[in-house]
Design brief:
Length: about 260
Protein backbone atom coordinates (compact mmCIF):
# COMPACT_ATOMS: atom_id res chain seq x y z
CA UNK A 1 0.00 0.00 0.00
CA UNK A 2 1.30 3.38 -0.89
CA UNK A 3 0.83 5.55 2.15
CA UNK A 4 1.21 8.63 -0.01
CA UNK A 5 -1.97 7.77 -1.89
CA UNK A 6 -3.97 7.61 1.30
CA UNK A 7 -2.38 10.77 2.61
CA UNK A 8 -3.34 12.63 -0.54
CA UNK A 9 -7.05 11.95 -0.31
CA UNK A 10 -7.14 12.11 3.47
CA UNK A 11 -6.40 15.79 3.08
CA UNK A 12 -3.31 15.70 5.24
CA UNK A 13 -4.83 13.36 7.81
CA UNK A 14 -2.57 10.49 6.95
CA UNK A 15 -3.08 6.80 7.51
CA UNK A 16 0.34 5.31 7.89
CA UNK A 17 -0.54 2.09 9.66
CA UNK A 18 -2.72 -0.25 7.69
CA UNK A 19 -3.97 -3.26 9.59
CA UNK A 20 -6.56 -4.72 7.27
CA UNK A 21 -6.40 -4.49 3.52
CA UNK A 22 -8.93 -6.15 1.33
CA UNK A 23 -10.63 -5.41 -1.92
CA UNK A 24 -13.92 -7.09 -2.53
CA UNK A 25 -15.60 -8.23 -5.69
CA UNK A 26 -17.51 -6.13 -8.14
CA UNK A 27 -20.83 -4.53 -7.28
CA UNK A 28 -22.46 -6.68 -9.94
CA UNK A 29 -20.60 -9.86 -9.17
CA UNK A 30 -20.20 -12.33 -6.39
CA UNK A 31 -18.59 -11.93 -3.00
CA UNK A 32 -15.08 -12.58 -4.22
CA UNK A 33 -12.30 -11.23 -2.10
CA UNK A 34 -8.69 -10.73 -2.85
CA UNK A 35 -5.78 -8.89 -1.44
CA UNK A 36 -3.45 -6.42 -3.04
CA UNK A 37 -4.05 -3.94 -5.85
CA UNK A 38 -5.39 -1.56 -3.25
CA UNK A 39 -3.80 1.62 -4.49
CA UNK A 40 -4.97 0.94 -8.02
CA UNK A 41 -8.46 -0.03 -6.89
CA UNK A 42 -8.84 3.12 -4.83
CA UNK A 43 -8.35 5.39 -7.78
CA UNK A 44 -11.55 7.11 -8.87
CA UNK A 45 -13.20 4.87 -11.40
CA UNK A 46 -15.15 5.95 -14.41
CA UNK A 47 -18.79 5.06 -14.74
CA UNK A 48 -19.39 1.80 -16.63
CA UNK A 49 -19.55 2.35 -20.34
CA UNK A 50 -22.60 1.00 -22.11
CA UNK A 51 -21.25 1.48 -25.63
CA UNK A 52 -22.20 -1.29 -27.99
CA UNK A 53 -19.43 -3.42 -29.33
CA UNK A 54 -19.48 -5.93 -32.10
CA UNK A 55 -16.20 -7.48 -31.06
CA UNK A 56 -16.66 -8.10 -27.38
CA UNK A 57 -13.72 -9.14 -25.27
CA UNK A 58 -14.13 -12.11 -22.97
CA UNK A 59 -16.80 -11.58 -20.26
CA UNK A 60 -14.25 -11.46 -17.48
CA UNK A 61 -12.10 -8.92 -19.30
CA UNK A 62 -15.15 -6.79 -20.09
CA UNK A 63 -16.27 -6.88 -16.47
CA UNK A 64 -12.90 -5.85 -15.08
CA UNK A 65 -12.61 -3.01 -17.57
CA UNK A 66 -16.09 -1.57 -17.12
CA UNK A 67 -17.21 -2.48 -13.62
CA UNK A 68 -16.17 -0.30 -10.70
CA UNK A 69 -15.11 -2.29 -7.69
CA UNK A 70 -15.86 -1.56 -4.09
CA UNK A 71 -12.54 -0.97 -2.39
CA UNK A 72 -11.91 -0.53 1.29
CA UNK A 73 -8.97 -0.04 3.61
CA UNK A 74 -9.36 -0.32 7.37
CA UNK A 75 -6.52 1.35 9.21
CA UNK A 76 -5.44 2.26 12.68
CA UNK A 77 -5.33 5.99 13.19
CA UNK A 78 -2.00 7.43 12.14
CA UNK A 79 -0.15 9.91 14.37
CA UNK A 80 -1.09 12.65 11.89
CA UNK A 81 -4.77 11.79 12.02
CA UNK A 82 -4.69 11.62 15.81
CA UNK A 83 -3.13 15.05 15.91
CA UNK A 84 -5.74 16.38 13.48
CA UNK A 85 -8.61 14.95 15.49
CA UNK A 86 -7.22 16.38 18.71
CA UNK A 87 -6.71 19.77 17.07
CA UNK A 88 -10.26 19.89 15.66
CA UNK A 89 -11.77 18.68 18.93
CA UNK A 90 -13.40 15.55 17.49
CA UNK A 91 -11.37 13.69 20.11
CA UNK A 92 -10.36 14.81 23.59
CA UNK A 93 -8.86 12.88 26.51
CA UNK A 94 -12.27 12.98 28.23
CA UNK A 95 -13.95 11.21 25.30
CA UNK A 96 -15.47 7.78 26.00
CA UNK A 97 -13.44 5.89 23.38
CA UNK A 98 -9.64 5.82 23.10
CA UNK A 99 -7.98 6.72 19.81
CA UNK A 100 -6.48 3.23 19.78
CA UNK A 101 -9.98 1.78 19.57
CA UNK A 102 -11.04 3.81 16.52
CA UNK A 103 -10.38 2.91 12.91
CA UNK A 104 -10.20 4.92 9.69
CA UNK A 105 -12.20 3.42 6.82
CA UNK A 106 -11.34 4.48 3.30
CA UNK A 107 -14.02 3.16 0.99
CA UNK A 108 -15.77 3.52 -2.35
CA UNK A 109 -19.15 5.16 -2.70
CA UNK A 110 -21.37 6.47 -5.48
CA UNK A 111 -21.62 10.25 -5.53
CA UNK A 112 -24.57 12.37 -6.52
CA UNK A 113 -22.67 12.87 -9.79
CA UNK A 114 -23.02 9.19 -10.63
CA UNK A 115 -19.30 8.57 -10.28
CA UNK A 116 -17.38 6.44 -7.81
CA UNK A 117 -15.55 8.35 -5.08
CA UNK A 118 -13.37 7.47 -2.11
CA UNK A 119 -14.67 8.46 1.28
CA UNK A 120 -13.36 8.45 4.81
CA UNK A 121 -15.16 7.44 7.97
CA UNK A 122 -13.83 7.00 11.48
CA UNK A 123 -15.71 4.35 13.46
CA UNK A 124 -15.23 2.17 16.50
CA UNK A 125 -12.95 -0.75 15.65
CA UNK A 126 -15.45 -3.14 17.20
CA UNK A 127 -17.95 -2.36 14.43
CA UNK A 128 -15.57 -1.59 11.56
CA UNK A 129 -16.20 -4.80 9.65
CA UNK A 130 -19.96 -4.42 10.03
CA UNK A 131 -19.82 -0.87 8.72
CA UNK A 132 -17.76 -2.05 5.76
CA UNK A 133 -20.46 -4.60 4.97
CA UNK A 134 -23.08 -1.84 5.03
CA UNK A 135 -21.18 0.41 2.65
CA UNK A 136 -20.43 -2.53 0.38
CA UNK A 137 -24.19 -3.09 0.10
CA UNK A 138 -24.80 0.61 -0.52
CA UNK A 139 -22.18 0.56 -3.25
CA UNK A 140 -23.79 -2.46 -4.86
CA UNK A 141 -27.12 -0.62 -5.07
CA UNK A 142 -25.50 2.65 -6.30
CA UNK A 143 -26.87 4.40 -3.21
CA UNK A 144 -26.11 8.11 -3.74
CA UNK A 145 -23.94 9.82 -1.13
CA UNK A 146 -23.09 13.51 -1.42
CA UNK A 147 -19.81 13.61 0.46
CA UNK A 148 -17.79 11.52 2.91
CA UNK A 149 -14.93 13.40 4.52
CA UNK A 150 -13.83 13.45 8.13
CA UNK A 151 -15.63 15.84 10.47
CA UNK A 152 -12.24 17.35 11.25
CA UNK A 153 -12.42 19.15 7.92
CA UNK A 154 -15.28 21.14 9.48
CA UNK A 155 -13.60 21.72 12.82
CA UNK A 156 -15.75 18.85 14.21
CA UNK A 157 -18.60 21.40 14.22
CA UNK A 158 -21.80 19.42 13.76
CA UNK A 159 -23.68 22.35 12.25
CA UNK A 160 -21.01 22.74 9.57
CA UNK A 161 -20.88 18.99 8.99
CA UNK A 162 -24.63 18.81 8.40
CA UNK A 163 -24.77 21.94 6.26
CA UNK A 164 -22.04 20.44 4.07
CA UNK A 165 -24.17 17.30 3.66
CA UNK A 166 -21.27 15.22 4.93
CA UNK A 167 -21.80 11.55 5.66
CA UNK A 168 -19.86 10.85 8.83
CA UNK A 169 -19.28 8.46 11.71
CA UNK A 170 -17.21 9.19 14.79
CA UNK A 171 -17.34 12.59 16.45
CA UNK A 172 -16.64 13.03 20.16
CA UNK A 173 -19.62 15.30 20.73
CA UNK A 174 -22.81 15.60 22.71
CA UNK A 175 -26.25 14.61 21.48
CA UNK A 176 -27.28 17.49 19.25
CA UNK A 177 -29.05 20.08 21.40
CA UNK A 178 -28.35 18.19 24.65
CA UNK A 179 -25.02 19.32 26.16
CA UNK A 180 -23.52 16.83 28.61
CA UNK A 181 -25.03 13.74 26.99
CA UNK A 182 -22.61 11.78 24.81
CA UNK A 183 -23.88 11.09 21.32
CA UNK A 184 -23.61 7.57 19.96
CA UNK A 185 -21.20 9.19 17.48
CA UNK A 186 -18.81 9.74 20.40
CA UNK A 187 -18.64 5.96 20.76
CA UNK A 188 -17.98 5.52 17.05
CA UNK A 189 -21.13 3.46 16.79
CA UNK A 190 -23.34 5.79 14.75
CA UNK A 191 -23.31 6.97 11.13
CA UNK A 192 -25.15 9.90 9.57
CA UNK A 193 -26.00 9.65 5.87
CA UNK A 194 -26.65 12.71 3.67
CA UNK A 195 -27.68 15.01 6.57
CA UNK A 196 -28.98 17.82 4.38
CA UNK A 197 -31.56 15.60 2.68
CA UNK A 198 -32.19 13.76 5.95
CA UNK A 199 -32.47 16.39 8.68
CA UNK A 200 -32.96 16.03 12.41
CA UNK A 201 -36.18 17.30 13.94
CA UNK A 202 -36.01 18.26 17.61
CA UNK A 203 -37.96 20.56 19.89
CA UNK A 204 -39.70 22.08 16.91
CA UNK A 205 -36.38 22.87 15.21
CA UNK A 206 -34.65 21.42 12.19
CA UNK A 207 -30.96 20.68 11.78
CA UNK A 208 -29.52 21.58 9.44
CA UNK A 209 -31.91 24.48 8.92
CA UNK A 210 -31.11 24.39 5.19
CA UNK A 211 -32.58 20.89 5.12
CA UNK A 212 -36.03 22.08 6.15
CA UNK A 213 -37.52 21.50 2.71
CA UNK A 214 -36.68 17.81 3.06
CA UNK A 215 -39.11 17.46 5.93
CA UNK A 216 -41.52 16.77 3.10
CA UNK A 217 -40.57 13.12 2.86
CA UNK A 218 -42.77 12.68 -0.20
CA UNK A 219 -40.17 14.64 -2.20
CA UNK A 220 -38.13 11.46 -2.64
CA UNK A 221 -35.18 13.57 -3.77
CA UNK A 222 -31.78 12.05 -4.41
CA UNK A 223 -30.08 10.99 -1.19
CA UNK A 224 -33.24 10.91 0.90
CA UNK A 225 -33.60 7.85 3.12
CA UNK A 226 -36.94 6.07 3.15
CA UNK A 227 -38.35 3.40 5.41
CA UNK A 228 -37.12 0.00 4.24
CA UNK A 229 -34.91 1.43 1.52
CA UNK A 230 -31.45 0.06 0.73
CA UNK A 231 -29.76 2.07 3.49
CA UNK A 232 -32.26 1.13 6.18
CA UNK A 233 -32.06 -2.52 5.14
CA UNK A 234 -28.24 -2.48 5.01
CA UNK A 235 -27.96 -1.11 8.52
CA UNK A 236 -30.73 -3.42 9.74
CA UNK A 237 -28.64 -6.33 8.45
CA UNK A 238 -26.06 -5.54 11.15
CA UNK A 239 -28.72 -4.86 13.77
CA UNK A 240 -28.53 -1.05 13.64
CA UNK A 241 -31.58 1.15 14.02
CA UNK A 242 -32.67 4.14 11.95
CA UNK A 243 -33.49 7.48 13.59
CA UNK A 244 -36.03 8.22 10.87
CA UNK A 245 -38.51 5.99 12.66
CA UNK A 246 -38.35 8.00 15.89
CA UNK A 247 -41.24 10.17 17.10
CA UNK A 248 -38.87 13.12 16.73
CA UNK A 249 -37.11 11.86 13.62
CA UNK A 250 -33.39 11.99 12.95
CA UNK A 251 -33.55 10.91 9.32
CA UNK A 252 -29.77 10.92 8.77
CA UNK A 253 -28.94 8.74 11.78
CA UNK A 254 -28.13 5.05 12.15
CA UNK A 255 -26.73 3.53 15.33
CA UNK A 256 -25.85 0.25 16.97
CA UNK A 257 -27.93 1.04 20.05
CA UNK A 258 -30.90 2.36 18.10
CA UNK A 259 -30.47 5.65 20.04
ZN1 LIG B 1 -26.31 10.79 14.02
Amino acid sequence: MRAAAVAAFAGGLTAATLIVVHVVGSWAGGPTARTGHVAASLRPTARPSRRASTASPSPSAAASAATPHFAVVVAELSPGLRAGMTASGSWRPSCPVALDDLRLLTLSYWGFDGAVHRGHLVVNGAVARQIVSVFRRLFQTHYPIRRMVLVDHFGADEDRVMAADDTCGYNGRWVYGRPGVWSEHAFGKAVDINPLENPYVYSGKVAPETGRRYLDRTLRARGMIEANDAAVRAFASIGWGWGGSWASPDYMHFSASGK
